[in-house]
Amino acid sequence: MPLKEHLIEARNRLFKSALAMLPGVVIAWILYDPLMAALTQPLQDISRERDIVASLNFAGVTTSFDLKLQISLILGLVLASPVWIYQLWAFITPGLTKKERRYTLSYLFAAVPLFLAGIYAGWLIWPNIVRALTAFTPKGGTNIMEAIDYLQFALQLMLFMGVAFLVPVVLFALNAVGIIRGATYLKAWRFTILGVTIVSAMAAPGSDVMSMFFLGVPLLVLYFGAIGLCMLNDKRRDRREAKKADETAATADTATPMSELEGL
Fold first, then answer.
1. Which residues fall within 8 angstroms of residue 77, CB to CB, at 6 or more apart?
2. Which of 79, 109, 116, 128 could pair with 24 as two cysteines, CB 3.0-4.6 Å apart?
3. Distance (Å, whole) CA 54 – CA 52
4. How confident is the model over 29-67, as pLDDT tens digits?
């Protein structure tokens, strides 16, 4: 396909993905108030339990509107994830072999629920992170946070957890098609820990250690869990190939006497 047709196809798939986001954006716009109440509930609990003032500050005139728009767009992106993940797969699949296409289609069905599960996991651990990061405010103190920073932190955490839950799918897919063995992943564990630390530091809006910890640990657990699955798959593949080699050798041994008899 010429480059121009590739660009046209990419534009069409992006347009379809954007259209799929619209229902999610509308839903998020309608549910903005209960969603904000749930996100800020940890602050109310902290204020009541620890006798401190923990609240959000909307500094600008348009801050409330900007936040509502940002949250609606991000939630629309999350709800439309089955569509844009499929569009991404459909864009790259013409360049794959039949075997690779079959593998990637099965992983596509695993990627969507894992991504949503990661978002939900981030939602569940969010109150604990807020409590951990505000635990150093002394009793009777005041912890007034910028609303944009607070909500960006929450959304970054949930999106990061969604992407982190996709790591096993990518690693196992590369292993299943025979590109990388599990032992190769394991050899790079030092660089993996370093990379996860850097990514966690970039994903966390602050420089505190606790936010990096809550972001990095799940990714490491998923990474090493995927390595274990890849190594089990390698053992199964090696046994299958060894069995094939034995059967081929046995066939050759039985065929040799027949060829010698025919020569006589």
1. 21, 24, 84
2. 79
3. 6
4. 888 888 888 888 888 888 888 778 888 888 878 888 888
Tokens of 100: 């690779």
CA distance 216 to 204: 10
What pTM did the predictor assign? Answer: 0.67
Question: Residues near 153 by Cβ (< 8 Å), separated by ≥ 6?
Answer: 204, 205, 206, 211
Asked if 15 contacts 9 with a C-beta cutoff of 8 angstroms, the reply is no
3-class SS of residue 215 = helix
- Other CB atoms within a 10 A radius of the CB of residue 179 amount to 10
Q: Which of 57, 44, 199 lies closest to 134, judged by CA?
A: 44
Question: Where in the chain are the domains?
Answer: 1-157, 166-249
In degrees and rounded to multiples of 5, residue 180 shows phi and psi of -130, 135
Distance of CA 83 to the CA centre of its chain: 16
Q: Look up residue 93 and give its DSSP letter.
A: G
